Amino acid sequence: VSTQSTESSGINAEYGGLLEEGGEKAQAAAFKGYALLKKISSLEKKDYVGKTGRRKFLKNSKVGSVEVQWKGHLEKVYYPTPRSGHVRNKIREELKWGIDRKSKFDKQRDFLIWSQEIVEDVAHQRYFHSLPLISWVMKHEAWWDWLVFLIALVIQLWLLKEWVDIPWARKAAEEAAGELAPHLSQCDNHTMGVCPSEGFKFTIVCLGSVHLLACCFLATSYFLANYHRISVKRNPNKRMLIKWHSFYHFYLLALLVCSCLGIATDGVLYCFHLFHIATLFDLLGRVIRGATTHADQLIFCFPFALFITIVYAILYDYVNQSGKGEVFDNSEMEYCGSLLQCLVTVLLQSLHPAGGGHNLSWKDRREFKDLWQRLLIDASFWILFTVIGLNVVTSLILDGFRQLKAERERAVKDMTTLCTVCGLSKDELTNQGISWSTHVEREHNIWSYVTFFYYLQEHSADSAQ
Question: Quick one: DSSP state of residue 81?
Answer without folding.
Answer: P
